[in-house]
Structures are given as structure tokens and as C-alpha cells.
Amino acid sequence: MDFRIQFFILSAILLVGCVDPEARPYEEYVEDYERLQNGETLNNQSTNNQSNGSTNQNTSNQTNNASNNTYPCSPDGGASIDITIRNATEYPADLFWVSFDCEELQYGTLFPDQVRSQQTFVGHVWILKIINTTLAWGVVEEGTTELVLGEE
């Protein structure tokens, strides 16, 4: 890879750490970047494996494990809901809400099995990423209290 591109990527990573106090440490980004450069995957699932879990009254495990960025935009509207979002992957990952225009807005970093309390809306989409690689995404469903990202 061209040195200028590597410099740009690392500069952008450093800038995120300066702007977002919940951003992951620089060293973790570099380790993940090196894994990607060596052709390694960042999750323990196959990159072609997309799975939807079951949904019950209290939790929603509707997640999709994917290394591609194919997920819907969050719909405008929906009922307000308070949930917890859990990182069920084995990697620290950045949490993003997908807006109505499919923009990804970062909401901090979740370490493996870490949870975050979050006010959101039914139908909204949340994703976990490491350096532009989507590990998992999920949709908030009505009547749920937890969105588990990365669990099959």
C-alpha cells in the first residue's frame, strides 16, 4: 500500500482519538489494521456468514455478522425505546448508529461483552465496526430491551 495512503489512514485514526474521548486506543487500531493488511479476518465468523437470531419479549438478537457494508438505513420515526447494546464479538469495536440517510454516526467503543445503555427508536440500525470493516449489525425491534451485536 502506498505510504501516503497509510499515513492518511493513521492520521485519521489519531484524529478520531482526539475528538472522541470514548474512541479506542491508537495501538488497538494499528493492531487491527495490521491484521487486515495480512489478510486476516477481524471476527471469528466466516465473512459469508450472515445470521439472524431469535427475538423474544425481552431481548432482540437480530444481528447480521458481515464483513461487507450491506445494511439498511434507519427509518424515520418509530417508537422511542431504551435498550442496552452488547458487543458479542471477541474484538473491541466502534459502535455506530445508521441515520435515515445511511450516514454512520459513532457512539463510542464497546469492548467484548461490554454493554451500553441507549435511547433509540424501533426500527433503527446499529453496527459494530473495526477500521471500516463491519463486524455485525442489528435492527431494534418493538418490545426489546437488548440488542446483541455479533451473536449467532
UniProtKB/TrEMBL annotation:
It comes from Microvenator marinus. This is von Hippel-Lindau disease tumour suppressor beta domain-containing protein. It comes from the Bacteria. Residues 81-129 form the von Hippel-Lindau disease tumour suppressor beta domain. Residues 41-73 are annotated as: Disordered. InterPro entries: VHL_beta_dom, VHL_beta_dom_sf, VHL_sf. Residues 43-70 have a biased composition (Low complexity).
